[in-house]
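Tokens as discussed.
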């Protein structure tokens, strides 16, 4: 992405900050790498680098002598260091005149996705008389908001994921009829092949989880460590991917099927609760967006979880309601979370996130997952919403 220095500086001034200090060592801060244009660059980043965007004036960087060209595409001046003494002197010079700066830091590690700078580096900045505050709101604005091209890539990825899901459901329907025999791993591998046919890439193969395995939200079948899929079984599919283009962003969906004629009442009731929770979260976000009211990630999570608790499922909740989407499947924007953390960041125009409430038991689990993109005064759901568990024998 191209970093809009003028826009960053306007935000810094509005927040009463003297600057934003980007720092990375060996890929430890993917947010800084993305903002600096290094996320997809074929460059070695084995040494520490800093890039300081002041609220006023030209940016300035500090780079190692053997990687002095890594930040050359960014505006401003670059100071070169080599030994530790020149690094210390360079950092002091870089921060001259600054008293309050933003870094990828979250007090108490409240939001781990933002907490990317190590404690020692924070200490080094503080030792120079500089207060460090969280860059969370800046990251929202300049790293988690999508361009029109990225929104289009998300929609293409979403459509492709639904086609893969449909093909997987055809296999499960064949299992129900007795026309096919397959295990979780076998179906997962077929889906991975369909990803390739669709031009999708991902950081992981899909989740295919039957019965008790669906009660583990992050279960992944592997060769020799899976189970056969039989008749009258619940099967959960979770699949995420992006089109294989630089700068493209993820889509992420979850659907549930049943290899029989009649879904057992406990499964159907639990699924009804999560669809109600999902729809409540979308309703809360859409209403706020349409009215021009701020809406925080924690607010949407709280609304969805209240539905599940009221339905008597409070003890079966294991995770937040949703996560930010970006060039990584778990993006750096606001998450729908007042459970694992309290994410008080606002859901911004141009940002996207999943809505994926789930309930987990010893013998099965259910989850529904859709994607929402905020576009002006609309909260747009990327694809169809599952309303009930699909019974393939009905």
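Sequence:
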């Amino acid at each position: 992405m191209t970093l809009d220095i003028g826009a960053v500086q306007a935000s810094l001034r509005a927040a009463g900050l003297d600057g934003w200090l980007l720092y990375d060592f060996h890929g430890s801060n993917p947010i800084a790498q993305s903002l600096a244009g290094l996320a997809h660059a074929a460059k070695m980043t084995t040494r520490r680098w800093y890039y300081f965007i002041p609220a006023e004036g030209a940016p300035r960087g500090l780079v190692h002598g053997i990687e002095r060209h890594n930040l050359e595409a960014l505006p401003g001046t670059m100071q070169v260091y080599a030994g530790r003494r020149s690094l210390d002197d360079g950092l002091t010079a870089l921060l001259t005149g600054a008293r309050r700066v933003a870094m990828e830091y979250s007090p108490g590690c409240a939001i781990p996705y933002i907490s990317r700078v190590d404690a020692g580096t924070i200490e080094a900045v503080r030792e120079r008389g500089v207060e460090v505050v969280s860059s969370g709101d800046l990251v929202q604005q300049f790293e988690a908001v999508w361009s029109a091209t990225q929104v289009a890539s998300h929609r293409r990825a979403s459509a492709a994921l639904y086609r893969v899901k449909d093909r997987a459901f055809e296999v499960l329907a064949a299992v129900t009829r007795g026309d096919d025999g397959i295990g979780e791993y076998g179906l997962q591998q077929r889906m991975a092949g369909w990803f390739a046919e669709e031009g999708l890439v991902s950081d992981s193969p899909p989740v295919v989880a039957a019965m008790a395995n669906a009660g583990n939200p992050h279960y992944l079948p592997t060769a020799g460590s899976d189970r056969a899929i039989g008749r009258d079984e619940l099967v959960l599919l979770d699949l995420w991917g992006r089109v294989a283009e630089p700068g493209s962003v993820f889509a992420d969906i979850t659907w549930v099927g049943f290899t029989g004629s009649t879904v057992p009442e406990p499964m159907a009731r639990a699924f009804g609760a999560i669809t109600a929770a999902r729809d409540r979260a979308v309703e809360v976000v859409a209403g706020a967006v349409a009215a021009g009211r701020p809406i925080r990630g924690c607010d949407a999570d709280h609304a969805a979880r209240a539905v599940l608790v009221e339905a008597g499922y409070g003890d079966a909740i294991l995770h937040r309601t949703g996560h930010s989407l970006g060039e990584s499947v778990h993006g750096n924007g606001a998450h729908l979370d007042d459970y694992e953390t309290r994410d008080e960041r606002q859901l911004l125009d141009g940002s996207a996130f999943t809505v994926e409430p789930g309930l987990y038991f010893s013998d099965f689990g259910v989850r529904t997952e859709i994607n929402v993109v905020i576009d002006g005064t609309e909260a747009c759901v990327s694809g169809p919403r599952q309303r009930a568990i699909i019974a393939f024998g009905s």
